[in-house]
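Write out structure tokens for Helix-turn-helix domain-containing protein.
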Amino acid sequence: MMSQMSNRHQIWTNLMIRTIDVLLFDDVNLLDVSGPVQAFGAAVIDARSQYTMRYVSPNGQPVRAACGLRIVADGQLSTRSNSDDLLIPGGKGVDAILKHASVQEVIQDRAAREGHGRLISVCSGALILAAAGVLDGRPATTHWSRSAETRQYENVLWDLDLISTSEERIFTSAGVTTGIDLALAIIRADCGPKVALAAARELVVQLRRTGGQSQYAIHLAGQFTRDDTLTRLIEQVVSQPQLDWSLNALSQAAGMNPRTLSRHFQRDLQESPAQFVERIRVDHARGLLFENLPFKQVAADSGFGDLQRMRRAFQRRFGVHVSEYLSSFG
């Protein structure tokens, strides 16, 4: 085992530095750019950065981000670039970029190249990949507010409830801070968990918020309920979904009778306590599935108790069995 770990360390420390072209355009979401590139910039081995960023715009000219900040590009987006990866952020300016034939040409050229070069989208940047046709037949996600636009690309396997997706060399993330999650996952794959953890600590973020978790963060609804008792109860369910959360157990934890508790859930969350618990458990299970854990362990750790109950819950939520869900989005 020590020999194997030593070999892995040797592989990671001998990595070639990867270069990433970062697409800039007017009205780009600045956090879609700064979040991932800051994560990549924090990936260091033996005092050497493992990624080099080059900022490009469609015409090589400066751009103005949606927040008003003016950004100077290093050069023009081009098929002649020899960088390893292309990162495509989102923002209001995506709508104009969708009409850029030259941008689509570059994306198609990169997708057709041999090797290990990646196409990485953040937020609505996935729509740019979809317009270029490189997401056809692939799982993908984007910001939930772009749901209507995704219907224009029927050949893409959209799941807007995911934080991120990856298949072969094409990666998408839900948007804004999830771009950091995706960058950390890529750093982990490229450089190993130690480097990824150091980068996460530098940014003061969680290392592994898995791609299977919900971008809607439904449990955050608990922060906006009308009473603190329900908020505390929701936080308990979210943090310990494996416990017994029957209606009686929930009522006892909240200090309410079952009828009153059910009325509070309907008032604040528009669902019954049982529906809420199942939703939390399904979301937890999705995250664990992306860790490649055995199905039975996922079912137990998520609070379903047995695999059959988890299968039925996935069928209710997504209309597919667990294995089908994982094959489409795993």
